[in-house]
Structure of Insulinase family protein:
Amino acid sequence: MRITVKPLFGAAAAAALLLAACETVPATDTALDDTGAAEAAPAEPAEMVVEVHEGDFATIQQFVTPGGVSVWLVEEPSIPILSLRMAWEQGEASDPEGLEGLTSALVYQMNEGAGDLDSLAFATRMEELNMSFGCGSDSETVYCSASMLTDNADEAMDLVALAMNEPRMDEGPFERFRREQLISLKTRETSQQYLARRALEQALMPDHPFARETSEESINALTPELALARKDEVMVKDGMCVTAVGAMSPQELAPLIDEAVAGLPATSDETPIEDVDLRDPLEAPLVVDLPQPQSLVIFVGKGPARDDPDFFPAYVLNYTFGGGGFESRLMKDLRVEKGLTYGVYTGLDTGDHLNFWQGGGSTKNESAGAFIEGLRTEMTDIAENGVTEQELEDAKAYLTGSYPLSFDSNSKIAGNLMSVRLEDLGIDYLDRRNALVEAVTLEDVNRIAAEYLQPDNFTYIVVGQPEGIEETASLPDPEDEEISLDDAGDQEEHNSEETEAFPDPDHG
Protein backbone atom coordinates (compact mmCIF):
# COMPACT_ATOMS: atom_id res chain seq x y z
CA MET A 1 0.00 0.00 0.00
CA ARG A 2 1.26 3.53 -0.79
CA ILE A 3 -0.01 6.73 0.79
CA THR A 4 1.03 10.18 -0.39
CA VAL A 5 0.96 13.02 2.14
CA LYS A 6 2.00 16.64 2.05
CA PRO A 7 4.96 17.62 4.25
CA LEU A 8 4.52 20.45 6.73
CA PHE A 9 7.53 22.24 5.23
CA GLY A 10 9.46 22.12 1.97
CA ALA A 11 12.36 20.01 0.61
CA ALA A 12 12.06 17.13 -1.79
CA ALA A 13 12.37 13.56 -0.64
CA ALA A 14 13.20 10.85 -3.14
CA ALA A 15 10.71 8.01 -2.89
CA ALA A 16 13.10 5.71 -4.69
CA LEU A 17 15.27 5.61 -1.57
CA LEU A 18 12.47 4.49 0.71
CA LEU A 19 13.43 0.86 0.41
CA ALA A 20 17.09 1.52 1.24
CA ALA A 21 17.94 0.61 4.81
CA CYS A 22 19.22 3.91 6.22
CA GLU A 23 20.02 6.29 3.41
CA THR A 24 19.38 9.98 3.07
CA VAL A 25 18.51 12.28 0.23
CA PRO A 26 19.49 15.93 -0.30
CA ALA A 27 17.08 18.25 1.46
CA THR A 28 17.59 21.25 -0.83
CA ASP A 29 19.14 22.34 -4.08
CA THR A 30 22.04 24.80 -3.92
CA ALA A 31 23.00 27.86 -5.92
CA LEU A 32 25.91 30.31 -5.84
CA ASP A 33 25.40 33.76 -4.32
CA ASP A 34 27.22 36.91 -5.48
CA THR A 35 30.33 35.95 -3.53
CA GLY A 36 30.49 32.48 -5.08
CA ALA A 37 29.46 30.75 -1.85
CA ALA A 38 26.94 27.96 -1.90
CA GLU A 39 23.48 29.12 -0.93
CA ALA A 40 20.48 26.93 -0.20
CA ALA A 41 17.76 27.52 -2.77
CA PRO A 42 14.16 27.47 -1.60
CA ALA A 43 12.69 24.12 -2.51
CA GLU A 44 9.21 23.71 -3.78
CA PRO A 45 6.94 21.78 -1.40
CA ALA A 46 6.99 18.14 -2.38
CA GLU A 47 4.85 15.21 -1.55
CA MET A 48 6.14 12.88 1.14
CA VAL A 49 5.54 9.30 0.09
CA VAL A 50 4.70 6.86 2.86
CA GLU A 51 5.02 3.14 2.16
CA VAL A 52 2.78 1.09 4.45
CA HIS A 53 3.56 -2.51 5.38
CA GLU A 54 0.48 -4.18 6.85
CA GLY A 55 2.05 -6.84 9.09
CA ASP A 56 0.75 -9.32 11.61
CA PHE A 57 2.83 -7.87 14.44
CA ALA A 58 2.69 -4.22 13.40
CA THR A 59 1.71 -1.86 10.61
CA ILE A 60 4.94 -0.13 9.67
CA GLN A 61 4.93 3.20 7.83
CA GLN A 62 8.17 3.81 5.98
CA PHE A 63 9.12 7.26 4.71
CA VAL A 64 11.90 9.77 4.14
CA THR A 65 11.41 13.13 5.83
CA PRO A 66 11.70 16.33 3.79
CA GLY A 67 15.10 16.75 5.45
CA GLY A 68 16.23 13.40 4.06
CA VAL A 69 16.00 11.11 7.12
CA SER A 70 14.80 7.52 6.68
CA VAL A 71 12.11 6.58 9.23
CA TRP A 72 10.07 3.52 10.18
CA LEU A 73 6.99 4.42 12.21
CA VAL A 74 4.41 2.25 13.97
CA GLU A 75 1.42 4.48 14.69
CA GLU A 76 -0.23 3.41 17.96
CA PRO A 77 -3.04 5.85 18.82
CA SER A 78 -4.23 3.94 21.89
CA ILE A 79 -1.10 4.78 23.93
CA PRO A 80 -0.26 8.51 24.27
CA ILE A 81 3.51 7.90 24.35
CA LEU A 82 6.13 8.31 21.63
CA SER A 83 9.24 6.09 21.73
CA LEU A 84 11.98 7.16 19.34
CA ARG A 85 15.26 5.48 18.37
CA MET A 86 18.13 6.88 16.30
CA ALA A 87 21.23 4.90 15.32
CA TRP A 88 24.47 5.22 13.36
CA GLU A 89 26.64 2.29 12.31
CA GLN A 90 29.92 3.60 13.71
CA GLY A 91 30.95 2.73 17.24
CA GLU A 92 33.69 2.48 19.81
CA ALA A 93 35.93 0.25 17.68
CA SER A 94 36.53 3.14 15.29
CA ASP A 95 37.88 5.48 17.99
CA PRO A 96 41.20 7.01 16.88
CA GLU A 97 44.22 5.13 18.17
CA GLY A 98 45.37 6.61 21.44
CA LEU A 99 41.90 8.07 22.06
CA GLU A 100 40.11 4.90 23.09
CA GLY A 101 37.02 5.89 25.05
CA LEU A 102 36.22 8.92 22.88
CA THR A 103 32.89 7.59 21.61
CA SER A 104 31.93 6.63 25.16
CA ALA A 105 32.74 10.17 26.27
CA LEU A 106 30.57 11.57 23.49
CA VAL A 107 27.45 9.55 24.28
CA TYR A 108 27.89 10.14 28.03
CA GLN A 109 27.72 13.90 27.48
CA MET A 110 24.70 13.97 25.18
CA ASN A 111 22.20 14.51 28.02
CA GLU A 112 24.55 16.49 30.25
CA GLY A 113 23.48 19.91 29.06
CA ALA A 114 22.74 21.73 25.81
CA GLY A 115 22.26 25.30 24.65
CA ASP A 116 21.60 27.53 27.68
CA LEU A 117 20.84 24.53 29.92
CA ASP A 118 23.64 23.08 32.03
CA SER A 119 23.55 19.48 33.22
CA LEU A 120 21.22 20.09 36.15
CA ALA A 121 18.92 22.38 34.20
CA PHE A 122 18.72 19.87 31.34
CA ALA A 123 17.80 17.04 33.71
CA THR A 124 15.25 19.28 35.44
CA ARG A 125 13.65 20.16 32.12
CA MET A 126 13.38 16.48 31.18
CA GLU A 127 11.67 15.82 34.51
CA GLU A 128 9.26 18.72 33.96
CA LEU A 129 8.32 17.27 30.57
CA ASN A 130 8.09 13.72 31.95
CA MET A 131 10.45 12.53 29.22
CA SER A 132 13.77 10.76 28.87
CA PHE A 133 16.63 11.17 26.43
CA GLY A 134 20.05 9.57 26.30
CA CYS A 135 22.63 7.97 24.06
CA GLY A 136 24.83 4.90 24.21
CA SER A 137 27.33 2.97 22.14
CA ASP A 138 28.88 -0.43 21.52
CA SER A 139 31.72 -1.60 19.32
CA GLU A 140 29.82 -1.08 16.07
CA THR A 141 26.98 1.35 16.81
CA VAL A 142 26.06 4.69 18.35
CA TYR A 143 22.42 5.14 19.30
CA CYS A 144 20.12 7.60 21.02
CA SER A 145 16.61 7.21 22.37
CA ALA A 146 13.84 9.42 23.61
CA SER A 147 10.50 8.71 25.24
CA MET A 148 7.80 11.31 25.77
CA LEU A 149 4.10 11.98 26.08
CA THR A 150 2.56 12.85 22.75
CA ASP A 151 0.68 15.72 24.41
CA ASN A 152 3.94 17.64 24.85
CA ALA A 153 5.97 16.00 22.09
CA ASP A 154 6.74 19.37 20.47
CA GLU A 155 8.43 20.65 23.64
CA ALA A 156 10.14 17.32 24.31
CA MET A 157 11.53 17.14 20.78
CA ASP A 158 12.71 20.75 21.12
CA LEU A 159 14.88 19.53 24.01
CA VAL A 160 16.11 16.58 21.93
CA ALA A 161 16.94 18.99 19.11
CA LEU A 162 18.87 21.18 21.52
CA ALA A 163 20.90 18.18 22.70
CA MET A 164 21.58 16.92 19.18
CA ASN A 165 22.48 20.32 17.73
CA GLU A 166 24.02 22.23 20.66
CA PRO A 167 25.52 19.84 23.24
CA ARG A 168 27.55 21.75 25.82
CA MET A 169 30.26 19.24 26.75
CA ASP A 170 30.94 21.22 29.91
CA GLU A 171 34.13 20.45 31.81
CA GLY A 172 32.27 19.45 35.02
CA PRO A 173 30.37 16.46 33.56
CA PHE A 174 33.36 15.64 31.37
CA GLU A 175 35.63 15.44 34.42
CA ARG A 176 33.07 13.19 36.10
CA PHE A 177 33.27 10.88 33.08
CA ARG A 178 37.06 10.81 33.40
CA ARG A 179 36.87 9.93 37.11
CA GLU A 180 34.44 7.10 36.46
CA GLN A 181 36.61 5.73 33.68
CA LEU A 182 39.79 5.88 35.77
CA ILE A 183 38.05 4.03 38.58
CA SER A 184 36.84 1.42 36.11
CA LEU A 185 40.42 0.82 34.92
CA LYS A 186 41.22 -0.47 38.38
CA THR A 187 37.99 -2.29 39.19
CA ARG A 188 37.98 -4.16 35.88
CA GLU A 189 41.17 -5.95 36.90
CA THR A 190 39.13 -7.93 39.43
CA SER A 191 36.16 -8.54 37.10
CA GLN A 192 36.01 -12.11 35.85
CA GLN A 193 33.88 -11.10 32.87
CA TYR A 194 36.30 -8.39 31.80
CA LEU A 195 39.40 -10.57 32.23
CA ALA A 196 37.76 -13.37 30.26
CA ARG A 197 36.79 -11.05 27.43
CA ARG A 198 40.28 -9.50 27.29
CA ALA A 199 41.94 -12.92 27.19
CA LEU A 200 39.57 -14.03 24.47
CA GLU A 201 40.33 -10.99 22.33
CA GLN A 202 44.07 -11.48 22.82
CA ALA A 203 43.74 -15.11 21.81
CA LEU A 204 41.49 -14.79 18.77
CA MET A 205 41.71 -11.23 17.39
CA PRO A 206 44.67 -9.41 18.97
CA ASP A 207 45.25 -7.05 16.03
CA HIS A 208 41.64 -6.04 15.39
CA PRO A 209 40.11 -2.77 16.69
CA PHE A 210 37.65 -4.86 18.72
CA ALA A 211 40.59 -5.86 20.94
CA ARG A 212 41.65 -2.29 21.72
CA GLU A 213 40.71 -0.95 25.13
CA THR A 214 40.86 2.19 27.19
CA SER A 215 43.92 3.11 29.24
CA GLU A 216 44.87 5.86 31.65
CA GLU A 217 46.68 7.61 28.83
CA SER A 218 43.75 7.44 26.41
CA ILE A 219 41.22 8.63 28.99
CA ASN A 220 43.40 11.55 30.09
CA ALA A 221 43.92 12.55 26.46
CA LEU A 222 40.19 13.07 25.90
CA THR A 223 38.77 16.60 25.82
CA PRO A 224 35.33 18.13 25.25
CA GLU A 225 36.60 19.53 21.95
CA LEU A 226 37.58 16.06 20.76
CA ALA A 227 34.18 14.70 21.79
CA LEU A 228 32.40 17.40 19.76
CA ALA A 229 34.57 16.60 16.76
CA ARG A 230 33.77 12.90 17.21
CA LYS A 231 30.07 13.75 17.18
CA ASP A 232 30.45 15.29 13.72
CA GLU A 233 32.21 12.14 12.51
CA VAL A 234 29.62 9.69 13.82
CA MET A 235 26.26 11.45 14.08
CA VAL A 236 25.61 12.37 10.45
CA LYS A 237 22.44 12.28 8.39
CA ASP A 238 23.83 9.84 5.82
CA GLY A 239 23.17 6.31 7.02
CA MET A 240 21.14 7.45 10.02
CA CYS A 241 18.31 5.07 11.01
CA VAL A 242 15.20 6.21 12.87
CA THR A 243 12.39 4.09 14.31
CA ALA A 244 9.40 5.40 16.22
CA VAL A 245 6.30 3.99 17.90
CA GLY A 246 3.41 6.02 19.30
CA ALA A 247 0.34 8.13 18.80
CA MET A 248 1.74 10.25 16.00
CA SER A 249 1.32 10.35 12.23
CA PRO A 250 4.10 10.66 9.63
CA GLN A 251 2.98 14.24 8.94
CA GLU A 252 3.37 15.14 12.62
CA LEU A 253 6.61 13.23 13.21
CA ALA A 254 8.63 14.25 10.13
CA PRO A 255 9.14 17.96 11.02
CA LEU A 256 10.04 17.05 14.62
CA ILE A 257 12.78 14.68 13.41
CA ASP A 258 14.09 17.15 10.85
CA GLU A 259 14.34 19.83 13.52
CA ALA A 260 16.14 17.45 15.86
CA VAL A 261 18.87 16.61 13.34
CA ALA A 262 19.00 19.90 11.44
CA GLY A 263 22.50 20.67 12.70
CA LEU A 264 24.05 17.28 11.91
CA PRO A 265 26.58 17.08 9.07
CA ALA A 266 25.31 15.48 5.89
CA THR A 267 28.16 12.98 5.56
CA SER A 268 31.39 11.84 7.16
CA ASP A 269 34.74 10.53 5.94
CA GLU A 270 34.80 7.88 8.70
CA THR A 271 36.38 4.66 7.41
CA PRO A 272 34.52 1.41 8.18
CA ILE A 273 36.45 -1.13 10.21
CA GLU A 274 37.44 -4.45 8.70
CA ASP A 275 35.78 -7.79 9.38
CA VAL A 276 37.31 -9.97 12.08
CA ASP A 277 39.32 -12.95 10.91
CA LEU A 278 39.27 -15.19 13.99
CA ARG A 279 42.44 -17.11 14.71
CA ASP A 280 42.34 -20.88 15.11
CA PRO A 281 41.03 -22.11 18.48
CA LEU A 282 43.55 -22.64 21.27
CA GLU A 283 44.42 -26.29 21.74
CA ALA A 284 43.93 -26.16 25.52
CA PRO A 285 42.09 -23.92 28.00
CA LEU A 286 43.65 -20.54 28.69
CA VAL A 287 43.74 -19.78 32.42
CA VAL A 288 43.71 -16.25 33.83
CA ASP A 289 44.68 -16.35 37.50
CA LEU A 290 42.33 -14.50 39.85
CA PRO A 291 41.93 -15.31 43.55
CA GLN A 292 38.25 -16.22 43.64
CA PRO A 293 36.38 -19.21 45.13
CA GLN A 294 34.78 -19.86 41.76
CA SER A 295 36.08 -20.08 38.21
CA LEU A 296 34.31 -18.45 35.28
CA VAL A 297 34.49 -20.55 32.13
CA ILE A 298 33.63 -19.09 28.72
CA PHE A 299 33.94 -20.77 25.35
CA VAL A 300 33.78 -19.20 21.89
CA GLY A 301 33.80 -20.59 18.37
CA LYS A 302 32.81 -19.42 14.91
CA GLY A 303 29.11 -18.97 14.20
CA PRO A 304 26.95 -18.20 11.15
CA ALA A 305 26.32 -14.64 10.03
CA ARG A 306 22.84 -13.18 10.38
CA ASP A 307 22.18 -13.46 6.64
CA ASP A 308 23.62 -16.98 6.38
CA PRO A 309 21.04 -19.68 5.55
CA ASP A 310 22.55 -21.63 8.45
CA PHE A 311 21.53 -18.96 10.98
CA PHE A 312 18.03 -20.18 11.79
CA PRO A 313 18.99 -23.85 12.06
CA ALA A 314 21.77 -22.74 14.43
CA TYR A 315 19.37 -20.50 16.34
CA VAL A 316 16.91 -23.35 16.87
CA LEU A 317 19.71 -25.77 17.76
CA ASN A 318 21.12 -23.31 20.31
CA TYR A 319 17.89 -23.48 22.32
CA THR A 320 18.29 -27.23 22.79
CA PHE A 321 22.04 -27.08 23.37
CA GLY A 322 22.38 -24.26 25.90
CA GLY A 323 20.01 -21.39 25.21
CA GLY A 324 16.81 -22.85 26.61
CA GLY A 325 17.41 -22.49 30.33
CA PHE A 326 16.40 -25.60 32.25
CA GLU A 327 15.22 -27.19 29.00
CA SER A 328 18.72 -27.12 27.52
CA ARG A 329 21.02 -30.13 27.53
CA LEU A 330 23.84 -28.27 29.27
CA MET A 331 21.63 -27.21 32.18
CA LYS A 332 20.11 -30.66 32.54
CA ASP A 333 23.54 -32.31 32.63
CA LEU A 334 25.86 -29.81 34.34
CA ARG A 335 23.43 -28.38 36.89
CA VAL A 336 20.57 -30.81 37.45
CA GLU A 337 22.43 -34.12 37.14
CA LYS A 338 25.99 -33.24 38.17
CA GLY A 339 25.55 -30.15 40.35
CA LEU A 340 28.58 -28.40 38.83
CA THR A 341 27.01 -24.97 38.34
CA TYR A 342 24.01 -22.80 39.11
CA GLY A 343 23.72 -21.87 35.46
CA VAL A 344 25.26 -22.39 32.03
CA TYR A 345 24.21 -20.75 28.78
CA THR A 346 25.03 -20.50 25.09
CA GLY A 347 24.10 -17.96 22.44
CA LEU A 348 24.75 -16.73 18.91
CA ASP A 349 26.37 -13.32 18.58
CA THR A 350 26.12 -11.69 15.17
CA GLY A 351 27.29 -8.36 13.83
CA ASP A 352 28.56 -6.57 10.75
CA HIS A 353 32.15 -7.64 11.36
CA LEU A 354 32.12 -10.62 13.74
CA ASN A 355 29.93 -13.70 14.19
CA PHE A 356 30.48 -16.32 16.86
CA TRP A 357 28.85 -18.99 19.00
CA GLN A 358 29.58 -18.45 22.68
CA GLY A 359 28.65 -19.66 26.12
CA GLY A 360 29.78 -19.87 29.70
CA GLY A 361 29.09 -20.58 33.32
CA SER A 362 30.66 -20.51 36.77
CA THR A 363 31.74 -23.43 38.91
CA LYS A 364 33.82 -24.09 42.03
CA ASN A 365 37.56 -23.96 41.43
CA GLU A 366 37.74 -27.62 42.45
CA SER A 367 35.31 -28.67 39.72
CA ALA A 368 36.56 -26.49 36.84
CA GLY A 369 38.18 -29.42 35.05
CA ALA A 370 35.03 -31.52 35.38
CA PHE A 371 32.91 -28.59 34.14
CA ILE A 372 34.98 -28.20 30.97
CA GLU A 373 34.97 -31.94 30.42
CA GLY A 374 31.19 -31.92 30.79
CA LEU A 375 30.90 -29.17 28.18
CA ARG A 376 33.05 -31.10 25.73
CA THR A 377 31.15 -34.32 26.33
CA GLU A 378 27.80 -32.66 25.60
CA MET A 379 29.25 -31.02 22.48
CA THR A 380 30.55 -34.35 21.23
CA ASP A 381 27.22 -36.05 21.83
CA ILE A 382 25.13 -33.42 20.06
CA ALA A 383 27.63 -33.15 17.18
CA GLU A 384 27.74 -36.92 16.63
CA ASN A 385 24.18 -37.92 17.44
CA GLY A 386 22.17 -34.76 16.85
CA VAL A 387 18.93 -33.81 18.60
CA THR A 388 15.63 -35.66 18.68
CA GLU A 389 12.44 -34.78 16.85
CA GLN A 390 10.81 -33.95 20.19
CA GLU A 391 13.63 -31.58 21.15
CA LEU A 392 13.26 -29.86 17.79
CA GLU A 393 9.52 -29.41 18.21
CA ASP A 394 9.94 -28.12 21.77
CA ALA A 395 12.50 -25.56 20.62
CA LYS A 396 10.28 -24.32 17.81
CA ALA A 397 7.24 -24.08 20.09
CA TYR A 398 9.11 -21.93 22.61
CA LEU A 399 10.88 -19.70 20.08
CA THR A 400 7.68 -18.95 18.16
CA GLY A 401 5.35 -18.81 21.15
CA SER A 402 7.48 -16.39 23.18
CA TYR A 403 8.18 -14.03 20.27
CA PRO A 404 5.11 -11.78 20.80
CA LEU A 405 6.43 -10.92 24.26
CA SER A 406 9.07 -8.82 22.48
CA PHE A 407 6.35 -6.41 21.38
CA ASP A 408 4.44 -5.60 24.58
CA SER A 409 5.54 -1.96 24.85
CA ASN A 410 6.26 0.97 22.54
CA SER A 411 9.89 0.92 23.62
CA LYS A 412 10.32 -2.78 22.81
CA ILE A 413 8.70 -2.37 19.41
CA ALA A 414 10.94 0.57 18.54
CA GLY A 415 14.00 -1.37 19.69
CA ASN A 416 13.07 -4.44 17.66
CA LEU A 417 12.41 -2.33 14.59
CA MET A 418 15.86 -0.79 14.98
CA SER A 419 17.44 -4.23 15.23
CA VAL A 420 15.72 -5.22 11.99
CA ARG A 421 16.96 -2.07 10.30
CA LEU A 422 20.57 -2.33 11.48
CA GLU A 423 20.75 -5.97 10.43
CA ASP A 424 19.06 -5.20 7.11
CA LEU A 425 16.51 -7.98 7.54
CA GLY A 426 13.71 -6.33 5.56
CA ILE A 427 10.55 -4.54 6.61
CA ASP A 428 8.57 -7.81 6.50
CA TYR A 429 10.97 -9.69 8.77
CA LEU A 430 8.73 -9.57 11.84
CA ASP A 431 6.09 -11.47 9.89
CA ARG A 432 8.54 -13.93 8.31
CA ARG A 433 10.50 -14.70 11.45
CA ASN A 434 8.31 -17.43 12.94
CA ALA A 435 7.91 -19.10 9.55
CA LEU A 436 11.71 -19.20 9.25
CA VAL A 437 11.88 -20.94 12.63
CA GLU A 438 9.16 -23.42 11.66
CA ALA A 439 10.92 -24.22 8.37
CA VAL A 440 13.99 -25.63 10.18
CA THR A 441 14.19 -29.40 9.78
CA LEU A 442 15.81 -32.09 11.90
CA GLU A 443 18.30 -32.65 9.10
CA ASP A 444 19.20 -28.93 9.12
CA VAL A 445 19.76 -28.84 12.88
CA ASN A 446 21.86 -32.00 13.01
CA ARG A 447 23.99 -30.86 10.07
CA ILE A 448 24.72 -27.60 11.91
CA ALA A 449 25.50 -29.50 15.13
CA ALA A 450 28.04 -31.66 13.33
CA GLU A 451 29.65 -28.65 11.66
CA TYR A 452 29.75 -26.08 14.45
CA LEU A 453 29.56 -27.87 17.81
CA GLN A 454 32.69 -30.01 17.65
CA PRO A 455 34.45 -29.35 20.99
CA ASP A 456 37.76 -28.56 19.28
CA ASN A 457 36.08 -25.69 17.39
CA PHE A 458 35.98 -23.65 20.59
CA THR A 459 38.50 -21.66 22.62
CA TYR A 460 38.03 -22.07 26.39
CA ILE A 461 38.93 -19.26 28.80
CA VAL A 462 38.97 -19.87 32.57
CA VAL A 463 39.24 -17.01 35.08
CA GLY A 464 39.88 -18.01 38.69
CA GLN A 465 42.15 -20.60 40.30
CA PRO A 466 40.82 -23.72 38.60
CA GLU A 467 41.76 -27.29 39.46
CA GLY A 468 41.61 -30.45 37.40
CA ILE A 469 42.89 -28.95 34.14
CA GLU A 470 45.86 -31.01 33.04
CA GLU A 471 47.01 -28.93 30.09
CA THR A 472 46.70 -25.17 29.59
CA ALA A 473 47.48 -22.70 26.83
CA SER A 474 49.39 -19.47 27.33
CA LEU A 475 49.65 -16.01 25.83
CA PRO A 476 52.39 -13.37 26.05
CA ASP A 477 51.95 -11.34 29.23
CA PRO A 478 50.30 -7.98 28.51
CA GLU A 479 52.40 -4.91 29.23
CA ASP A 480 52.15 -3.89 32.85
CA GLU A 481 50.41 -0.57 33.20
CA GLU A 482 50.38 1.32 36.46
CA ILE A 483 47.17 3.25 36.91
CA SER A 484 47.27 6.43 38.92
CA LEU A 485 44.04 7.11 40.72
CA ASP A 486 45.25 9.77 43.14
CA ASP A 487 43.26 12.48 41.42
CA ALA A 488 40.36 10.35 40.32
CA GLY A 489 38.11 10.98 43.31
CA ASP A 490 35.04 9.01 44.16
CA GLN A 491 33.18 7.41 41.32
CA GLU A 492 29.87 9.01 40.49
CA GLU A 493 27.31 6.84 38.80
CA HIS A 494 25.76 8.03 35.57
CA ASN A 495 22.08 7.34 35.01
CA SER A 496 22.21 4.07 33.08
CA GLU A 497 18.57 4.35 32.07
CA GLU A 498 19.36 7.56 30.19
CA THR A 499 22.60 6.39 28.56
CA GLU A 500 21.40 2.94 27.48
CA ALA A 501 19.27 3.85 24.51
CA PHE A 502 17.90 0.44 23.67
CA PRO A 503 18.73 -3.18 24.51
CA ASP A 504 21.06 -5.33 22.49
CA PRO A 505 19.47 -6.53 19.27
CA ASP A 506 17.40 -9.69 19.55
CA HIS A 507 19.16 -11.84 16.97
CA GLY A 508 16.15 -14.13 16.68
